[in-house]
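sanity check this:
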Amino acid sequence: MDMPHLVMEQVLDNVDFLTILNLRKVCKSFRNLIDDIKPINNLIIIRIYLEFRRIKVELVFDFEEVFVNFFLFYQEGPEENSCCIFKDFVEPEFAVQKDGHFVDAFLTDFEPILKNQRSKLTELEIKVNCFYYDDDYSFLSQSKPQSIFSRFLFKKFESVSTMTCIVERRQDDNIANEMIDGIWRILESRTVPLETGKLKLIVPKSSQVVRLLRSIKTNSLHGNRANQGASSPGDADLTLDSKCETFKTMEELVISKFYMGNPILDFLHIPKLNIIRDSIPREDILIIKQVGSEFFLIKLTREPLHMLPGDSDETYAK
């Protein structure tokens, strides 16, 4: 630690990613130095998947064009307020058990990774896939009871099962919000946005897309709405911040299951565009024809085209 700061920076720039993580645990001096220098590493892809009651993380490293995948799993433990951590699909009995929620353990381990990543990533993916489909939440026996007594028991079971489904879905929603909010807080604490070539987001709420995009610099965004069941609430209307620097320099935008609220003029600078609108006026269609983008696809749902004053039914149909 007595060596000059420039020398230490050169040394850390030539140390591999996992060694830096181990070195960061040696003492506070090394931890503060690494957090200050943010050394360059060979990490190129981060994929974070929130599954049912566990988080799977895939890290891809580039060792001189030899790509190595590394998996980490954080899941609920056998006891209350406990979690298990294991890697590379090993048997759960070999997992490391810790106290606390598995989302908190994940955020603690990955805070220095997301906060100190200086080199540009090839891909960053955050996917929420912890929700069952609505039929799975409310699964009931298909055989109807015949007797009066059994019908009474069936109705009681149906009521309890419905309440359990609501509680389960609410727990899944809270876990998803907790993980995404934690990732956003880490990214927001960075001095500069995290840079990645491609960003993939599958999240329940449109506001989460907007928040994450403010702390991430990318040229390509693929956004999708996570399944929450047919009866689950959630905001499906997405309006991106047109003043955001990432949005201004975007070259590809693909949005599914979110209904874009921005005017068409906000997207004219994006060469590759695939979005969903709930309605589109005739003026926007004329603008699209004039632009002639390389890839410009708009899916119309929910409502028909707006008829302008003086338009006939024939003009409206065309």
